């Protein structure tokens, strides 16, 4: 398992998701803290390309050896890609949560929602208090 | 982190028995038999004459061929590797793994009980019907409600039956609510049953005291006026805490037109002390294997009787037991508003007999003592281990309690490692990682059947393991060390489950891509 980290170039959501913004699109995944809390992943259920996701609403499920967790969209948009490699290798979410373990990419429908997300420092602070 | 391609540190194949025990398939030798039949004078009829070709196998089933004595030795050996309530303490929180008194089996094995056939005419089974009626009335009294159906075959089946009653009730009133409220501490079966019944689960948060958040319920109900079908709750909840606001919660849900469903999984805490009906619940299911000492089936026959308030009686599954005169009973199928049948025949009668025997043996006073002792035992064990862990809610506990093993993470040890190491001390570990709202949860339910000596031994084992977590954490991370198999690969077990055994050469054939 990688060491705990929260890359500075990402934005963070209170449900322990990260967002990487690239132009009008954004990639979602779950944070190191979330994968550590859930434990070893065994299954990922992700939306189809074209599906709409909305901020604060669940868009998929991750099943670990401990439990099944819903994953929440940090911001709204339309799914343009889902990480199909997780079907065969859900362990990427644990081994490389910010890289190969990405979940979906969306075309942002309300970019102003990004302003409501945390930066890495704020997320660490959130973990130290309410988030954990 | 393990990746899925580098898992083979197992000593054995997945699904294979522990080293030292060969499978029944490996023991098979062509021609061995566990029986021999004498020659008979009756001419043999060929299968071809009895069944059309389409109904017959093309090849005979390939079954293990083994002598009777080897068969008996095989399963005796396997049973020696098992652990159950007859081996030792089994403090699996929320599952109430209590001892099942042998008198239950004695009664269930009486020829007049064991030999019954479900197609026997009513007039020949009046005693069985009376037993069912008596048990129904006892369960109604314990629940504080009016009528019982004994048909559901398990707790979750009782949940589904109860929710179908909720649906029938609303439809009868021309209402079509579609939301079922469920607290975030609920058993996983609750939302699953809700979805199966066609409703949508809405999760209610817990408050700072570990109870359902009444303000959140009120707010949600106001925002979804007319759309609340029911609320499902376990009391005490899965944190082992009594829901002290239940009467107010019931009022809110009832005023919104919804019903209240009581998940009886934790009834062992309150027998004869508080009744779901008095708390405001309209529907209750009991898990007889938890509360009334019927066997914990392992998938085998069970019973999840459902008890309801009088307003729901018209919807009960058919057949409904009807008393026609003193000691005279009939099975009533003429119930136009019934939800229909939920189970073949009349439920699992043999299981119900055991629950009857248990209640009969203890009586009302004895059942109260069951719950009192269950609560006392949990409180005693908690006092013995609480300094080792985080205690999420500082309140008196009921029949079970939840602590967090989070403090051990500083040593690189998790709740799962504690559970695995406890195996080496010869005790069954508690439930881990449930309820979900407590991190690194250990959920402990000793039940009333453990003596103080056994509780002390369990506490000593937990204390020893936590001591090791500090001095030699690797010992826990690689536990168990004394079991027939070591740490199992849970990811591989979840992703590539092996669900059956085969002959070794069949296994090779099955693995070949088709």
Characterization of this structure:
The complex is a heterodimer of chains A (132) and B (514). Chain A is 18% helix and 34% strand. Chain A has one domain (15-115): OB fold (Dihydrolipoamide Acetyltransferase, E2P) (Beta Barrel), CATH 2.40.50. Chain A has 132 residues and is of the alpha+beta class. Chain A starts with 10 loop residues before the first strand and ends with a helix. Chain A has helices at residues 32-38, 85-88, 92-95, 120-128; strands at residues 11-13, 17-22, 25-30, 41-45, 52-53, 58-64, 68-72, 77-82, 104-108. Chain B has a domain at 103-360: Type I PLP-dependent aspartate aminotransferase-like (Major domain) (Aspartate Aminotransferase, domain 2), CATH 3.40.640.10. Chain B has helices at residues 24-27, 47-50, 68-80, 102-108, 111-114, 126-143, 155-172, 189-196, 214-223, 246-255, 276-279, 288-291, 349-385, 415-424, 452-471, 473-477, 490-495, 504-511, and strands spanning 147-149, 179-183, 200-204, 228-233, 259-263, 283-285, 306-308, 320-325, 328-332, 401-404, 431-432, 441-444. Chains A and B meet through strand 4 of A and helix 17 of B.
List the keywords.
heterodimer; A: alpha+beta; OB fold (Dihydrolipoamide Acetyltransferase, E2P); three-stranded antiparallel β-sheet; 9 strands; B: 514 residues; alpha/beta; Aspartate Aminotransferase, domain 2; seven-stranded mixed β-sheet; 18 helices; globular; disordered N terminus
Provide a short characterization of the protein structure.
Chain A is α+β, with helices and mostly antiparallel strands and 132 residues long.
List the helices and strands and how they pair.
The complex is a heterodimer of chains A (132) and B (514).
Chain A lengths: L10 E3 L3 E6 L2 E6 L1 H7 L2 E5 L6 E2 L4 E7 L3 E5 L4 E6 L2 H4 L3 H4 L8 E5 L11 H9 L4
Chain B lengths: L23 H4 L19 H4 L17 H13 L21 H7 L2 H4 L11 H18 L3 E3 L5 H18 L6 E5 L5 H8 L3 E5 L9 H10 L4 E6 L12 H10 L3 E5 L12 H4 L3 E3 L2 H4 L14 E3 L11 E6 L2 E5 L16 H37 L15 E4 L10 H10 L6 E2 L8 E4 L7 H20 L1 H5 L12 H6 L8 H8 L3
Parallel strand pairs in B: 2-3, 2-4, 4-5, 5-6
Antiparallel strand pairs in B: 1-7, 6-7, 8-9, 10-12, 11-12
Helix pairs in contact in B: 4-13, 6-13, 7-8, 9-10, 13-15
């Amino acid at each position: 398992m990688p060491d705990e980290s929260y890359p500075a170039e990402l934005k963070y959501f209170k449900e322990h998701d990260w967002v990487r913004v690239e132009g009008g699109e954004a990639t979602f995944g779950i944070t190191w803290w979330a994968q550590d809390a859930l434990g070893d992943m065994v299954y990922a259920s992700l939306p189809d390309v074209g599906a709409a996701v909305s901020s604060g609403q669940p868009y998929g499920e991750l099943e670990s050896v401990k439990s099944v967790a819903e994953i929440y969209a940090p911001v709204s948009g339309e799914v343009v890609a889902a990480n199909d490699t997780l079907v065969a290798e859900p362990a990427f979410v644990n081994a490389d949560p910010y890289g190969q373990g990405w979940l979906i990419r969306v075309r942002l429908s309300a970019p102003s929602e990004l302003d409501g997300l945390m930066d890495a420092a704020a997320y660490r602070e959130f973990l130290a208090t309410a988030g954990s | 982190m393990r990746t899925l391609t580098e898992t083979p540190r197992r000593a054995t194949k997945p699904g294979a028995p522990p080293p030292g025990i060969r499978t029944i398939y490996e023991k098979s030798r062509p021609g061995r038999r566990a029986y021999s039949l004498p020659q008979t004078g009756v001419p043999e009829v060929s299968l071809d004459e009895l069944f059309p070709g389409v109904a017959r196998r093309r090849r005979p089933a390939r079954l293990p061929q083994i002598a009777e004595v080897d068969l008996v030795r095989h399963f005796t050996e396997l049973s020696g590797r098992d652990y159950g309530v007859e081996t030792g303490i089994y403090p699996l929180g929320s599952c109430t793994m209590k001892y099942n008194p042998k008198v239950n089996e004695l009664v269930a094995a009486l020829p007049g009980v064991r030999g019954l056939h479900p197609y026997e005419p009513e007039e020949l089974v009046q005693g069985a019907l009376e037993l069912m009626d008596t048990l129904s009335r006892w369960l109604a009294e314990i629940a504080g409600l009016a009528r019982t159906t004994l048909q559901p075959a398990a707790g979750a089946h009782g949940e589904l039956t109860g929710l179908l009653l909720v649906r029938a009730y609303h439809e009868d009133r021309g209402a079509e609510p579609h939301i079922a409220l469920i607290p975030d501490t609920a058993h996983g079966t609750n939302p699953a049953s809700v979805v199966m019944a066609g409703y949508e689960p809405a999760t209610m948060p817990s408050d700072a005291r570990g109870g359902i958040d009444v303000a959140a319920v009120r707010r949600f109900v106001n925002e979804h006026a007319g759309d609340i079908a029911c609320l499902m709750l376990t009391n005490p909840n899965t944190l082992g805490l009594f829901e002290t606001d239940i009467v107010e919660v019931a009022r809110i849900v009832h005023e919104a037109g919804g019903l209240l469903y009581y998940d009886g999984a934790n009834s062992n805490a309150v027998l004869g002390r508080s009744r779901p009906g008095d708390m405001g619940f309209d529907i209750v299911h009991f898990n007889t294997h938890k509360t009334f000492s019927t066997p914990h089936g392992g998938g085998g026959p069970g019973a999840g009787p459902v008890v309801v308030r009088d307003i729901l009686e018209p919807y009960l599954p058919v057949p409904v037991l009807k008393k026609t005169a003193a000691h005279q009973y009939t099975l009533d199928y003429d119930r136009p508003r019934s939800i229909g049948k939920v189970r073949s025949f009349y439920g699992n009668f043999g299981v119900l007999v055991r629950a009857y025997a248990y209640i009969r043996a203890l009586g009302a006073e004895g059942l109260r003592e069951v719950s009192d002792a269950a609560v006392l035992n949990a409180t005693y064990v908690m006092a013995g281990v609480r300094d080792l862990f985080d205690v999420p809610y500082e309140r008196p506990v009921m029949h079970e309690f939840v602590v967090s093993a989070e403090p051990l993470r500083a040593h690189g040890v998790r709740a799962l490692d504690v559970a695995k190491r406890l195996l080496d001390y010869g005790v069954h570990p508690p439930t881990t990682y449930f309820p979900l709202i407590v991190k690194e949860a250990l959920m402990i339910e000793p039940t009333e059947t453990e003596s103080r000596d056994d509780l002390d031994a369990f506490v000593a084992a937990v204390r020893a393991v936590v001591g090791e977590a500090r001095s030699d954490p690797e010992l826990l991370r690689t536990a168990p060390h004394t079991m027939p198999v070591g740490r199992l690969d849970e990811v591989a077990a979840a992703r590539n489950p092996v669900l059956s055994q085969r002959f070794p050469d069949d296994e090779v054939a099955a693995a070949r891509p088709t």
